[in-house]
């Protein structure tokens, strides 16, 4: 136990049992003053204590004298040679609890101190030699090959030297000047070619400011050039920054700053008012170093109270020129306006650096290895690590069955596309870390309960990284609840529901990276070592697909059951972080986009854009008319679909009134919730423009007032100049479209492509001859057999459980190393003995596809694709337009080709004789949208709403 002595207002804590004379920590209250400079050490700031005898007691207790880090090492420079100094990180109690950047900083300070003391010793004129120092006093830069240094000490010194090679922190060096950083950013901004940007950075890192060699902190430079990587979290939005700097600059300037903020660049706004500030004028000369700015930003990230943030920003502003403060604000916003990403910056260090970073996201290690290569082209290999999130592997849109088989000609795994939130779980012992798709920590209320269930699901696991989706599941009906129900308030409305983790991939297991392993093996590891915890941790639904007809049936089944779609994966593919090498099939991708939901909505308001679109209206609030309340209600916000020229034209065409998001200025005709009040409202909704808004699907969103109906992933398909606001979709029509969309049955075209697929007699990776594939529920006996197969195949054992008998089976590794064609030629299976390959159904699963489409009831193979082509398929197309004759269809319609094809296919007729319906825009004619909506809904919609 530490001895604690209380005297007056001073609190003295005794030395810990470790016997160390120095300790380091982050200031807890901000009450203690630095022994050297007498300035209080702010709460959260790094501080070092020297443990000295307590002069106020007779009991031999000790006390701590606190110093700023810089002050402590400055005091060592003037101390006697016999004074005890910090000579190694082991001299500091609490060093291992510090953050990585702070540990590096202290190691560098130790190195600089040792170099300084060594230089002083060499310049002494006295010939008298000092006694040899102990091992702990050996300077880091000295020869570590002497016999009296232990092997452990030698390794530690080598590691320290490696740290210093990356982080040379001589703050006085011009290469560590914040001004030079601003100059480099300006050069990168002016250069448009990415290769030239890389060349500029490379030249600077090779030659430095003076052209004689770079002497700055390479890692810190790279970290500043890539502020969106390894983000510090400040929780400071643009308006909050204006509020804080208005306090710093003084005077009633907040409203003026917010008005200037409408130009879209908070850094320019702050710089403008800093230049005019009387209370806090800018400093005339730039003196900041990168290290000083880094410390400021680190302190700012630790503060949450507004008063504390304002005090620190005041301190920063007093040290900055106008341009310094502008760049610091850009760093806070994680956008330094150089239009260069990780690839362009890291290529300046090593052409292999970006790929290594892409896979590991360990920026510091990538920089270290790149420097070791000396700006060469050597291999940079950085493995994935627990606690460092891995970029998730992604999927690109797949718009047809034929396209899927062109990408995966040997077959594929079809997996349910869950409509939840992507989560990456890292487990290290009893520690758990959860990361979102954007690699940020997931909010606690969504994932905390998994700490109880993950150990049950992975009983043999010490370290783990898995990829999956979390969704809310009804524990009574097994129904997956809609997207958006994971919020803390929404979740509370569903008492009989639980958040479930659907696992679909494993990247790391018990100390071994699985990124390079094929998907079939990664999936089998999950099957073998994971135990399903119903409604809490489950395996995703997956099926092996060989034929286009089977894939077509699966797509229809998934979408008709209300699922988002399918994800298609190559069984032999590795896990490639950040790469879009999977395929995703969704309703709005299919049949030329005709399955997407759309509505004709009126422009009700607009918002200022940000970045390149700052200062102009670029986000628009769309809505429809509610006849029952005689008010206009909001449906969605949309910002995609217009090119730059159209946006510029809309600034003049749209008749808007500026209200600057003031709820008190919202007109009475508009029904909008406070969080969606726009910067502008239309002067008269009856004269406003009508736009066709298309999205993935109609969805529920309580933020909008159209009965909670909204459009997911909206985009502008076209501006409907042929329609007025009175002709736009009303709330009643929107509700009807919403209900139709939910009841809509997907039926894909019979033509699924002429692709010749492999024989059903061949196995996909991960399948066994007895039909045992990847099921969400696997008996323990099969799990044990699977684990034994991995061990017998020569793989490193991941299982801690005792091994018993082994059962012969086909290993996925063996399947992958054998040629499918050789297998097909060397094996003959009679039709009457062929086994059906099916997938078992988990009791809790919501998506299971029957395999009867591929095999007959008696187990015989279905007819081959080529033989099926010899006969005409049965026609089950709906006869929507029987008896309907139109003279012509408008060729300027966006989907004219699809429109005419489907109209004829659905029994419509184009002829000049016997015309029953006149299509056009004149009064009394039928709007073309009637035919289009009928085709999309596969049912004849009410024509009355579409008569001009």
TrEMBL record:
Residues 757-832 are annotated as: Disordered. PROSITE patterns: BRCT (PS50172), DNA_LIGASE_A1 (PS00697), DNA_LIGASE_A2 (PS00333), DNA_LIGASE_A3 (PS50160), ZF_PARP_1 (PS00347), ZF_PARP_2 (PS50064). Its EC number is 6.5.1.1. Gene3D superfamilies: 3.30.1490.70, BRCT domain (3.40.50.10190), DNA ligase, ATP-dependent, N-terminal domain (1.10.3260.10), DNA ligase/mRNA capping enzyme (3.30.470.30), Nucleic acid-binding proteins (2.40.50.140), Zinc finger, PARP-type (3.30.1740.10). Its main location: nucleus. Keywords: ATP-binding, Cell cycle, Cell division, DNA damage, DNA recombination, DNA repair, DNA replication, Ligase, Magnesium, Metal-binding, Nucleotide-binding, Nucleus, Zinc, Zinc-finger. It catalyses: ATP + (deoxyribonucleotide)n-3'-hydroxyl + 5'-phospho-(deoxyribonucleotide)m = (deoxyribonucleotide)n+m + AMP + diphosphate. GO terms for cellular component: DNA ligase III-XRCC1 complex. Residues 757-772, 780-802 have a biased composition (Basic and acidic residues). Its cofactor is Mg(2+). Residues 22-114 form the PARP-type domain. Residues 492-626 form the ATP-dependent DNA ligase family profile domain. It comes from the Eukaryota. Belongs to the ATP-dependent DNA ligase family. This is DNA ligase. It comes from Varroa destructor.
């Amino acid at each position: 136990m530490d001895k604690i002595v209380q005297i007056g207002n001073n609190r003295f804590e005794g030395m810990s049992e470790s016997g160390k004379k120095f300790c380091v920590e982050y200031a807890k209250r901000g009450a203690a003053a630095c022994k050297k400079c007498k300035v209080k050490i702010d709460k959260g700031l790094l501080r070092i204590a020297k443990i000295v005898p307590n002069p106020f007691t007779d009991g031999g207790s000790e006390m701590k004298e606190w110093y700023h880090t810089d002050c402590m090492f400055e005091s060592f420079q003037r101390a006697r040679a016999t004074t005890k100094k910090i000579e190694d990180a082991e001299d500091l109690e609490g060093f291992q609890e510090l953050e990585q950047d702070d540990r590096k900083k202290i190691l560098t300070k130790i190195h600089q101190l040792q170099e300084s003391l060594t230089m002083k010793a060499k310049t002494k004129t006295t010939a008298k030699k000092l006694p040899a120092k102990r091992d702990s006093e050996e300077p880091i830069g000295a020869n570590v090959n002497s016999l009296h240094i232990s092997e452990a000490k030698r390794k530690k010194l080598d590691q320290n030297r490696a740290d210093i090679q990356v982080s040379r922190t001589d703050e006085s060096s011009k290469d560590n000047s914040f001004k030079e950083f601003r100059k480099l950013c300006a050069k990168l901004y002016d250069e448009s070619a990415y290769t030239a940007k890389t060349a500029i950075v490379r030249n600077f890192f090779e030659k430095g400011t003076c052209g004689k060699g770079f002497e700055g902190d390479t890692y810190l430079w790279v970290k500043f050039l890539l502020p969106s990587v390894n983000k510090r979290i400040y929780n400071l939005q643009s308006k909050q920054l204006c509020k804080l700097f208005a306090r710093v600059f003084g005077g009633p300037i907040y409203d003026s700053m917010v008005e200037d903020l409408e130009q879209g660049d908070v850094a320019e706004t702050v710089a403008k008012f800093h230049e005019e500030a009387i209370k806090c004028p800018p400093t005339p000369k730039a003196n900041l170093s990168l290290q000083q700015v880094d410390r400021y930003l680190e302190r700012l990230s630790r503060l949450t109270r507004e008063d504390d943030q304002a005090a620190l920003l005041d301190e920063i502003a007093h040290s900055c020129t106008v341009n310094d403060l502008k760049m610091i604000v850009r760093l806070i916003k994680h956008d330094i306006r150089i239009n260069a990403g990780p690839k362009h910056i890291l290529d300046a260090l090593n052409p292999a650096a970006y790929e290594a970073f892409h896979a590991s996201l360990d920026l510091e290690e990538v920089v270290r290895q790149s420097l070791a290569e000396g700006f060469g082209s050597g291999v940079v290999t950085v493995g994935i690590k627990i606690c460092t999130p891995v970029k998730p592997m992604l999927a690109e849109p797949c718009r047809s069955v034929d396209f899927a088989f062109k990408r995966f000609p040997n077959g594929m795994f079809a997996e349910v596309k869950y409509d939840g939130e992507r989560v990456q779980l890292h487990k290290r012992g009893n520690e758990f870390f959860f990361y979102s798709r954007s690699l940020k920590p997931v909010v606690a209320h969504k994932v905390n309960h998994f700490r109880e269930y993950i150990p049950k699901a992975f009983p043999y696991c010490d370290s783990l990284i898995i990829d999956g989706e979390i969704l809310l599941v009804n524990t009574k009906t097994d129904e997956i609840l809609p997207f958006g129900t994971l919020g803390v308030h929404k979740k509370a409305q569903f008492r009989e529901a639980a958040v479930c983790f659907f696992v679909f991939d494993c990247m790391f297991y018990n100390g071994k990276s699985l990124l390079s392993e094929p998907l079939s093996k990664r999936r089998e590891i999950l099957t073998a070592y994971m135990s399903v915890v119903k409604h809490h941790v489950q395996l995703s639904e997956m099926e092996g697909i060989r034929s286009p007809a089977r894939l077509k049936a699966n797509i229809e089944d998934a979408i008709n059951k209300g699922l988002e779609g399918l994800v298609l994966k190559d069984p032999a593919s590795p896990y490639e972080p950040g790469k879009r090498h999977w395929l995703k099939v969704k309703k709005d991708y299919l049949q030329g986009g005709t399955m997407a939901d759309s509505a004709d909505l009126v422009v009700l308001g607009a918002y200022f854009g940000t970045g390149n679109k700052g200062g102009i209206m670029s986000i628009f609030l769309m809505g429809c008319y509610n006849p029952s309340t005689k008010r206009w209600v909001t449906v969605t916000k949309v910002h995609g679909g217009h090119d730059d020229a159209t946006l510029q034209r809309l600034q003049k065409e749209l008749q808007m009134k500026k209200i600057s998001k003031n709820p008190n200025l919202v007109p009475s005709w508009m029904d909008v919730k406070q969080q969606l009040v726009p910067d502008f409202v239309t002067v008269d909704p009856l004269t406003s423009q009508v736009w066709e808004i298309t999205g993935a699907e109609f969805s529920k969103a309580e933020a909008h007032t159209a009965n909670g109906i909204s459009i997911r992933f909206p985009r502008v398909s076209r501006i409907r100049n042929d329609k007025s606001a009175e002709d736009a979709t009303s709330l009643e029509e929107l509700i009807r479209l919403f209900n139709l969309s939910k009841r809509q049955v997907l039926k894909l075209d019979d033509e699924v492509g002429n692709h010749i697929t492999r024989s059903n007699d061949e196995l996909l990776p991960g399948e066994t001859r007895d039909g045992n594939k990847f099921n969400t529920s696997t008996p323990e006996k099969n799990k044990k057999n699977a684990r034994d197969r991995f061990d017998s195949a020569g793989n490193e054992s991941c299982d801690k459980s005792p091994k018993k008998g082994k059962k012969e089976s086909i290993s996925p590794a063996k399947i992958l190393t054998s040629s499918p064609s050789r297998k097909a030629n060397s094996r003959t299976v009679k039709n009457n003995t062929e086994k059906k390959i099916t997938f078992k159904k988990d009791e809790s699963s919501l998506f299971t596809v029957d395999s009867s489409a591929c095999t007959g009831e008696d187990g015989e193979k279905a007819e081959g694709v080529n033989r099926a082509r010899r006969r005409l398929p049965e026609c089950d197309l709906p006869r929507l337009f029987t008896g309907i004759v139109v003279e012509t269809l408008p060729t300027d319609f966006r989907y004219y080709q699809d429109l005419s094809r489907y109209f004829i296919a659905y029994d419509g007729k184009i002829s000049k004789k016997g015309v029953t319906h006149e299509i056009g825009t004149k009064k009394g004619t039928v709007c073309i949208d009637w035919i289009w909506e009928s085709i999309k809904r596969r049912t004849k919609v009410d024509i009355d709403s579409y008569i001009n």
